[in-house]
């Protein structure tokens, strides 16, 4: 063997490359020589798709517990395990049944860093292989389909979360599905959490949200609030006699699915001077843009010092469109307008995404004013890239290529833009700007581009690396010519 193949740094690098394909090569390398055995086995056992390989080590053992040297030598290599396959190994003394939940839990994966439990497919619950004193990340997926195991799964999840509260290294937690109040109560005891994803169905979500708000280190929260009542939430906050300064005191990133009422209540109570990134998904059924006025005002009043990234996902479907207020034209009732967004005008935004299935109803003058609101914008998306597919052909978009001029001149740091316009209008040559940093541009348009649009984009945006034009099935050849002209190394 060449001496270079005994250099540890080189071996580690080569074995990492082998792992990118499959574990088969590493299995051969582990049996090749003693020098390669440990680094190869470390990678083979580092991430397990199920507990079956570990259980197979003790299936034929006469010991009551998996403490054999062979088991330990492999178990100490495991860093990540996913419990998502029903195990064919039957080791009753090693499994943890519902009746054993109150007993002290022993752990056999001393170096386990992350675990994922999919209760919809897991057979016997091997709790000993789910907890570790070094655990950093836990994901529990209980599912939203009720079955005979729903209650016992929720109880088991509650048990794991109770044990997790004693783990000083646990920073990230995700819980999804139908759960019980006890499980939500135990989450608030995990004081080390920095990131929490909570997509659950539980009637006690209102009180749970209050409790979670007291977690001192929580910086990221992803939550669905379908079971939260705005009035009950506000009352519970007052009953707890909490201070705004201590409610989500460290939260910087919030992704929330909520109704306008719940969002307004939460935004009014959040600690100021912390939140930087807010993503809002409208709770079904989705109301018209005008229903968010009070919520946007609460965001503007309480989060204007620090909030620099805002995403609004407003997915109103065709059925809801048919049920919209018939007394108003669709463009006024279901499309976002500048007036709908005006309460947000004082935010120091660098990123704004309006992910709506309907294109906003804005004119060129509206875009001029929007650029004045947020001159520091680096990322702007006004409507979904395919939003024009969701409206009747008789609906005409008012914005023209002049809106590109306004955004280019008003937002000098803009790097990514999604905008629907009527591209058939002319752009004056005198309006082209040099050396703008825009690198990604998506234009939605039913009409082919005016020849001046190509020249304006090419001269104004020399850093453009991605250009997605028009609608894919309309005027494809015209837009393809524009792409080849404005994007360097464009590939047909």
Give an overview of the whole structure.
The chain is an alpha/beta fold and 492 residues long. Among the domains are: 15-45, no CATH class; 49-54 and 68-83 and 105-202, no CATH class. 33% of the residues lie in helices and 16% in strands. The chain has 18 helices and 15 strands. It has helices at residues 8-21, 24-30, 34-46, 52-58, 69-75, 150-164, 181-187, 205-212, 230-240, 260-269, 293-303, 318-322, 330-333, 338-341, 364-373, 402-410, 451-460, 476-486, and strands at 47-48, 80-83, 114-118, 137-143, 172-178, 195-201, 220-224, 253-258, 277-282, 309-314, 351-356, 379-382, 416-420, 440-444, 466-469. It has a 15-stranded parallel beta sheet with strand order 1-2-3-4-5-6-7-8-9-10-11-12-13-14-15. The radius of gyration is 28 Å and the shape is globular. It starts with 7 loop residues before the first helix and ends in a 6-residue tail after the last helix. Mean pLDDT is 84; it is low at 87-104. It comes from Coniophora puteana (strain RWD-64-598) (Brown rot fungus). This is F-box domain-containing protein.
Number of strands: 15
Largest beta-sheet characterization: 15 strands, parallel
Which strands sit side by side, in order, in the main sheet? 1-2-3-4-5-6-7-8-9-10-11-12-13-14-15
What integer is the average pLDDT?
Answer: 84
Proportion of β residues?
15-25%
* Computed CA radius of gyration, to the nearest angstrom: 28 Å
Distance between the termini: 49 Å
Helix amount, in percent? 25-40%
Shape: globular
Uncertain runs are 87-104
